[in-house]
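Objective 1.3, modelling of assemblies. Example input:
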Amino acid sequence: MIKLTTENTVKAVAKCKQLKPRVKFIKDRLFVVYSSNNSNVYHVRFDVQNDEKFGQCECKASERGFICYHIIAGATANIYRQSLKLAK
Ligand SMILES: [Zn+2]
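Predicted structure (tokens):
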């Protein structure tokens, strides 16, 4: 898994805002992100250890250790879900 920091997510956040991929919730910390460029579908997983966030995607960029916009899309949905839980 790749550690998510403010620094290494800047580019992916920008790309995510531009492409606005669709995200589907599967279960806790597991999402499906639909590619904006083609018909690819990626499973994105998250983990939290010692208050640090980690993410993993199935695409080539993530395999090479980069934060991709799929992870950001999933993370955004994950944070949104967490906030809904807190609101209950
Ligand atoms: Zn990806």
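The CA atoms of residues 10 and 62 lie 15 Å apart.
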